[in-house]
Amino acid sequence: MTYQNTINNLQQTAIEDGTTSITFDTQLLATSGLTLVPSYNSVESCGEELTFNFDITEDSNLVFGEQGFDIDVDQLELIPTTPIESDSFLLFEGDPSDNQGLSGFLNPSPGAPDSGHLEISLNSPGFPAPYYATGRQSNPLATDETRSATLDSNQNLTNFADYLSDNQIDTAEIGFSFGQKSDRDFTETWNAGEDLLGQDWLASPDSTIEERISQADPDAVETFLLFGDTPIVSFDYSPLYAVLDYGETLGNEDDIDIFFTEAIGAQKVDDLDPVSDGLADAFLEDLSNREVQVVVEDSAVENLAPNFDPDTGFVVADVPLPLSIRIVDDVDLNESSDSDDYDDSNDYGDYDESDYSGYSNDYSDSGDSDDYDVESDLSDLGEASGSIFDGQDFFTAIEGAIKHSGDLTFETLAGDITASELSIGFDAARQTEDISGFFVESSLSGVVHDETVLFDLGSPNNIETDANELSLDYADVLITPEFSEVLLSTGAATDDLVGIDVGDLAIDAIAESFSEVPMDYV
């Protein structure tokens, strides 16, 4: 059986309206032999930067849609439950840039019980696995953090939705948090226990799948639905189960992470004010004595960006937390599974624990902590991914273009070159490690008359689709081979300028209303 994700699994949609902004670095342009002439477009000047704002025109026809991901849950050997389908759920987003998200951390001392095993799955980067897991507000470096995620949308919790509307409560006031209780040490959060292969985690060099189970003392941890910073509904304890699929390549663009709980109960928190009390009642009324399952789904997974905390001696990394609270209906998630009969002869490559003894809680062959350099070894953990975007894998089908009004005029040694009718298209064939596949094309006039691809766009810092919007934040603007050839052939440039970064581009586009794909097993 294959589990298919549902969060942001959206049908194709088309761009209708919006704005694209291109910010040029005038010094980089001058180095390339180009000088921008302000035009009738909206132009903003700040120091050595010029920002041109182009309106997206109605004849834009770029069609895009996010690609779902799936995992064959029949492969699972250790985890006793699976994510469910549900027609009723709350969707939350927690981003580290908003002081939210999930925090994983570990003890970097070689041989320490909580140092975290090394990843051994096929196509995994071989990093140490985080030993502890908690919400951003409960990690060792927490300062002003108050929650793990914020409500993004509501599907079929009608009483809850009506109460928010009737009391003029914005969804941004609803949050989710999990972690150790405030009077407990941060090491009492969910953790990998003995971190033993075959008991607490399961993986093989012959499979891209890794399973992890994190547990805690139920009295030491807590999970809440929040109104503002106030817990209004508490959820029962459950282990945290994780399924990681490292994909068909060594890159993280085709990686998938799913975290989920068992079916758990929910109760109203005592001594609430009248508004909070009514909000909790509305949520529980939608539950109607049913249980919920918390599910986190993340594709094109970002590499962890570790920080060393000198006060605690731990390495802490924050990642986004896209999660849903799903109402469980007529499903028993908590049945025992084949994991009870688990032995060394399972389908994970018939491994023998002795074959992987070198991976267990040891970052060096010597195990000598005196030789362990935190700073240098942390560099091997990888930096935060600059983007969650991969043009081939993130989008199902891209065709057409985003078209704009306005033009750009460049002064060159050979004369002026005016680029008009700018359009942004996508071509997977243009993709490289540093180029997203998006490109800027234009009709040229002046010294040369032609239609040319001017710029390739690097991987954006972020690309998001929600409700009816496509947002792309600050992709590098790189001179294309085509434009470089034009500049060389006309004498406007004397050097090959291919790949030169001359600025950044951002898109804030309005699209047709999305239609969500129903949650499903296939």
Layout: helices, strands, pairs:
Layout: E1 2-4, E2 13-25, H1 26-31, E3 35-37, E4 42-46, E5 49-55, E6 63-64, E7 70-72, E8 89-93, E9 102-106, E10 132-135, E11 149-155, H2 158-166, E12 174-180, E13 190-191, E14 201-202, E15 209-214, E16 221-227, E17 230-235, E18 240-245, E19 256-260, E20 266-268, H3 274-287, E21 292-299, E22 306-309, E23 314-319, E24 323-327, H4 374-378, H5 391-394, E25 401-403, E26 407-412, E27 415-426, E28 435-446, E29 450-458, E30 462-466, E31 469-479, H6 481-489, E32 501-511
Helix pairs in contact: 2-3
- Structural class category: mainly beta
Find the count of extended strands (DSSP E, 2+ residues). 32
- Work out the helicity level: under 10%
What's the end-to-end separation, in Å? 7 Å
Strand content: 35-45%
Assembly level: single chain
Number of helices: 6
- How large, in whole angstroms, is the Cα Rg? 26 Å
Main beta sheet strand tally, sense and closure: 13 strands, antiparallel
Q: Note the overall shape.
A: globular
For the residues shown, what is the average pLDDT? Answer: 80
Low-pLDDT runs of 5+ residues are 2-12, 336-397, 514-522
Q: How would you sum up this structure, described in words?
A:
The chain has 522 residues and is mainly beta. Helix content is 9%, strand content 37%. The chain has six helices and 32 strands. The protein has helices at residues 26-31, 158-166, 274-287, 374-378, 391-394, 481-489; strands at 2-4, 13-25, 35-37, 42-46, 49-55, 63-64, 70-72, 89-93, 102-106, 132-135, 149-155, 174-180, 190-191, 201-202, 209-214, 221-227, 230-235, 240-245, 256-260, 266-268, 292-299, 306-309, 314-319, 323-327, 401-403, 407-412, 415-426, 435-446, 450-458, 462-466, 469-479, 501-511. Strands 2, 3, 4, 5, 6, 25, 26, 27, 28, 29, 30, 31 and 32 form a 13-stranded antiparallel β-sheet that branches. It has a twelve-stranded antiparallel β-sheet with strand order 14-15-18-19-21-24-8-11-12-16-17-20, with helices on one face. A five-stranded antiparallel β-sheet has the order 13-10-9-23-22. 43% of the residues are buried. Mean pLDDT is 80; it is low at 2-12, 336-397 and 514-522.
